[in-house]
Amino acid sequence: MLKLYNTLTNKKEEFIPLVRNEVKMYVCGPTVYDFFHIGNARSFIMADVIRRYFEYKGYDVTFVMNITDIDDKIIKKSIDGKKEYSIVAETFANAFLEDLKKLNIKPATLYPKATAHISEIISMIKSLEEKGFAYNVNGNVFYDVSKFSAYGKLSGKNLEDLESGSRVEINEEKKNPLDFSLWKKAKEGEPSWESPWGNGRPGWHIECSAMSCKHLGETFDIHAGGSDLIFPHHENEIAQSEASTGKHFVNYWMHFGFLNIDNEKMSKSLGNFFTARDVVEKYPKEVIRLFFVQTHYSGSLNYSVELLDASKKGLEKIENFLFTLKEKQKSAVDHAKKIPFSCKKYYSDFEEAMDDDFNSAKALAVIFDFIKEVNRLFVEYPQLDKPFLEKVEKFLQKTAVDVFGIASFERKEESASLENELIEILIQLRITAKAEKNFALADKIRDDLKSLGIQLLDSKEKTVYKKS
User: Phi, psi (5° rounding) for residue 101?
Assistant: First the structure.
């Protein structure tokens, strides 16, 4: 039974999809005015892991991630850079998709853009106005939060106690400081679209409501995003969506914890951030993903070079095992002494962890326990049969590769080049040096090769190498 923590109810609940064996999931994507930072990457990667696990369980997942391509920050960037807002948005939208690929994040089913949904946005605003939830002041349309009795049900905030937050606009035209913009009247030099209230552009919150309802339905299974979006963004999405459609908006709300630097939230406004593309230049995507899955998605996580380096060492253990596995497969036979080992327990333990609100840290520990036990069997049983090794590979393929995306069985075929022949000559020279007890020379050969990115792996049978 898969259970997940629902922010709406503040408890773990059994996941029951609206449609059997299907999951409809919406994740808040970026506002494309800059490269996204590594804190954003945590949300995107953990959403990817959750999506992958649903697929592991046999669900057909419709995964939608929006792209906000019209916003105050985009307009400011366009003015500062003397470029059309659409050029700024397109540039960073393309960069966003490139960086997702670099992080081994599966492409979404759909990446809807706000500017491609202006008609749906206007239609939803008109509905809210007709039902008395919105009011127009000289071309600016606001949502009247006092008219929605359930306002605050996601964040747990009481309407009477709420004070305007950092993202709540101060505007004398509003009836209440907490009322938020649905449609913004056009300003000179800014992009705008025709509407029943005059030329203007949509507010931030209404975009997600219009796009999610169009592509996933007026009620869908899961809505996810960073914890900083609970209020006001997701709270406002609920208010405007449910007021417009008269239906329950989302069944399960999931929120990802912050990535901190020196125990302070990483954010562009604070200036304490690294872009994902900068980090992926220094660390392989698998290291970054391993770093994130070691902590539960909802908990806060501290970013540091030391922790990334520790993840790199953890990844080396997995990669070394996969390399050893491939070498063992080369010498495997069809019929060898039966090994008393079953993957069933490890599948069960992995699923038990992930079924418990996607406890990736506990599930990752199962993978490392599996590797440790199989390594022990490699030593105990020098002759291995092919079916055993196939089962081992299948388990890691389904868990470490398909769900976590922290490993790969794909390897480039090594050509019989002069380089490889020279490496083999050096290996033989090292074997001779060791036999003659010239350990200083043997160590120098090993260390010099390592400095060139060639790692020697010794076993009782032979010495092999791998390139990093």
Answer: -65, -40
Q: Bridge-partner residues for 13, per DSSP?
A: 4
Residue listed under structure tokens 């470490």: 400
What is 86-128 written as a DSSP string?
HHHHHHHHHHHHHHHHHTTPPPPSB--BGGGGHHHHHHHHHHH
CA dihedral 303, 309, 311, 317 (to 10 degrees): 180
Q: Which two tokens stand for residue 152?
A: 């605050």
Structural domains of the chain sorted by starting position, each given as residue range(s) with its CATH number in brackets: 3-293 (3.40.50.620), 313-401 (1.20.120), 418-467 (no CATH)
Taking all residues of the chain, what is their mean pLDDT, rounded to a whole number? Answer: 91
**Which DSSP symbol is given to 68?**
B
Q: Reduced to 3 states, what is the DSSP secondary structure of residue 342?
A: coil
**Per-residue pLDDT band at 15 (split at 50, 70, 90):** very high
Packing angle, helices 285-293 and 38-56, rounded to 10: 80
Q: What is the dihedral of CA 52, 53, 57, 62, to 10 degrees?
A: -50
pLDDT tens by residue, 371-391: 999 999 999 988 888 899 999
What are the CB-based long-range contacts (under 8 Å, 24+) for 17-22? 17/59, 17/221, 18/217, 18/219, 18/220, 18/221, 18/251, 21/58, 21/59, 21/60, 22/59, 22/60, 22/61, 22/62
Query: What one-character-per-residue DSSP string does 198-235 give?
Result: -SEEE-HHHHHHHHHHHHH-SSEEEEEEEGGGIIIIIH
Sheet holding 250-256, edge to edge: 60-65, 22-27, 220-226, 250-256
